Amino acid sequence: MNFNSISGRFALLTILFVLLAEILILVPSVTNFRRDYLETRLERAQIASLALLATDESIAADLESELLENAGVFNVVLRRDDIRQLVLSSPLPQPISATYDLRDDSWGVSVRDTLQRLLSPRPEVIRVIGEPVRQAGQLIEITMDTAPMRAAMIEFALRLLAVSAAFSLMTALLLNLATQRLIVRPIRGVIDHMIAYAASPEDSRTIITPGASMGEVRDAESALAQMQRTVTASLKQRERLAQLGQAVAKISHDLRNILTTGQILADRLEESADPAVRRAAPKLVGAISRAVNLCETTLAFGKAEEPQPSLTLFHLRPLVAEVIEAEELAGETAPEAAVEFIADIPAGMRIRADRDQLYRVLANLARNARQAIEATRRPGTIEISATEDESHWCIRVGDTGPGLPQKARENLFQPFTGGIRKGGTGLGLAIAADLIRGHGGRLDLMRSDSEGTEFQIGLPREISRL
C-alpha cells in the first residue's frame, strides 16, 4: 500500500484512529475482566465451602486440597451470623501482600489496581473480600495467587488487541476500496483529462465534460472545463493574431522603407522656391515621420517576447535624472508649453531591477505626460517620485496635464486600442506594463482627471524562487 497516496493515507489514519480507540477501550475492558475473574474465584470458593458445610463433618485432606485447587484459592473464610469461620485452608506459599474488598471498589481504584497488576510480573498472595452469592452469609474471604490472574489478564488483552488489529485492517481495506472508487478514480479522471488537454490544447475535443457524482469533484471539473475553454479560445485568438502580426510586420517593413524614401524627398521640398510648397513641407515631413514611427513601433511589438530582466541593484536617482534630461531636450521643440520636471527620489535609494528596461518604462511614461501637456499649449509639471517599504519599491509618475479620455482609460494597457493621444498606437503603455510584469510587479493608473494623471510602478523586493 502506497501511504503517499490519498487512499493510503486514509487507510493509515483509519488504522491509527481505530487502534487509539481500542487502546482507550482496552484499559476499562481489562479492568472489568479482572473484577469478573475475582468474583468468579469468590463464587467457586463459596461452592467449595458449601460442599463442606452441607456435610457438617470434616473432610479428608486430599479432598480439601482438590476443592481449593478447583477453586483456585488457598483459603476460604465465611462470615455467617457475625461468626468468622475458616472453612477451607491450605499453607500459604508467602505472606499476604494486599487485600482487595470488592464490596467497596470504585472504578478509579480498580483501574489503578489493574495497571499495577499488569506491570508487576512478580507472583504475590492477595486477600479478596466479597459478598456471598444468594445471601449465603455476610461476606466471603479468599486468599489466592496473582500469577494465574495476571496471565489470564494478559491473554485477554492480547485477544482484544488482535481483534482490534483485524478490525482496523478490515476497515482500512474497505476504506481504501471506497476511496479508490469514490475519490481517487474521479481525481485520476480529471488528471487524465488535464494531460490529454496539455498535449493538444487547441483541440476542443479534449475539453473535459463534467459528470462526476461528487459535488466537489464536479465543481473542479466545471472549473477546469471553463479554464480549458478560455485557454483554447485565447490560443486560437493568439494564433490568428500571430498570423495577422506576421502579415502586418511584412507590410510595415516594406512600408517603412517606402516612407523613409518619401521622408528624404519631403526634406528637399523645404528648399523649394514655391512658398506654398515650403509651408506644406513641414506638415508632410511630420506626417511621414509619424507613419515611419508607427511602422517601427509595430515591428518592435511584433518581435519575440522581451528577454527576461537582468536584475541588478543600482541607485534610482541617476536613472531618473537621465530620463528627465532626455525629455527636457525633446521638449525644447515646444517652448510655448514649457514643462517642468521634478524628481523626488530619496538620496541613496537603491532598487533591484533591469536598468535598461526600467529606463524604457519611465521614459515612456514621462514622454506621454510631456506630450499630453504640450498638446494643451499651457505650462505644466511632471513629477517622478519614489518610496520604499519592507516588501516593495514604489515609483510614481504624475503630471498636471488634461487627464486621459474615458476610452483610453478603458483599454489603457491594450495594444493598438489604449492610445492616450491622437495618432498614438497604445503600444508604449502595453510594452511598459509587460516589462513591469516581467519583474513580478504591476503598472497601475492611480488617478486621471482634469487636474492630471498619475501612474504607479510597484516592484517586489523579494526575488521569486519559482
From TrEMBL:
<keyword id="KW-0547">Nucleotide-binding</keyword>
<feature type="transmembrane region" description="Helical">
    <location>
        <begin position="6"/>
        <end position="27"/>
    </location>
</feature>
<dbReference type="InterPro" id="IPR003661">
    <property type="entry name" value="HisK_dim/P_dom"/>
</dbReference>
<keyword id="KW-0597">Phosphoprotein</keyword>
<dbReference type="GO" id="GO:0005524">
    <property type="term" value="F:ATP binding"/>
</dbReference>
<dbReference type="InterPro" id="IPR005467">
    <property type="entry name" value="His_kinase_dom"/>
</dbReference>
<keyword id="KW-0067">ATP-binding</keyword>
<keyword id="KW-0902">Two-component regulatory system</keyword>
<keyword id="KW-0812">Transmembrane</keyword>
<dbReference type="InterPro" id="IPR036097">
    <property type="entry name" value="HisK_dim/P_sf"/>
</dbReference>
<feature type="transmembrane region" description="Helical">
    <location>
        <begin position="156"/>
        <end position="178"/>
    </location>
</feature>
<protein>
    <recommendedName>
        <fullName>histidine kinase</fullName>
        <ecNumber>2.7.13.3</ecNumber>
    </recommendedName>
</protein>
<keyword id="KW-0418">Kinase</keyword>
<keyword id="KW-1133">Transmembrane helix</keyword>
<dbReference type="GO" id="GO:0000155">
    <property type="term" value="F:phosphorelay sensor kinase activity"/>
</dbReference>
<dbReference type="Pfam" id="PF02518">
    <property type="entry name" value="HATPase_c"/>
</dbReference>
<keyword id="KW-0808">Transferase</keyword>
<dbReference type="Pfam" id="PF00512">
    <property type="entry name" value="HisKA"/>
</dbReference>
<keyword id="KW-0472">Membrane</keyword>
<feature type="domain" description="Histidine kinase">
    <location>
        <begin position="250"/>
        <end position="463"/>
    </location>
</feature>
<dbReference type="InterPro" id="IPR004358">
    <property type="entry name" value="Sig_transdc_His_kin-like_C"/>
</dbReference>
<dbReference type="InterPro" id="IPR003594">
    <property type="entry name" value="HATPase_dom"/>
</dbReference>
<dbReference type="InterPro" id="IPR036890">
    <property type="entry name" value="HATPase_C_sf"/>
</dbReference>
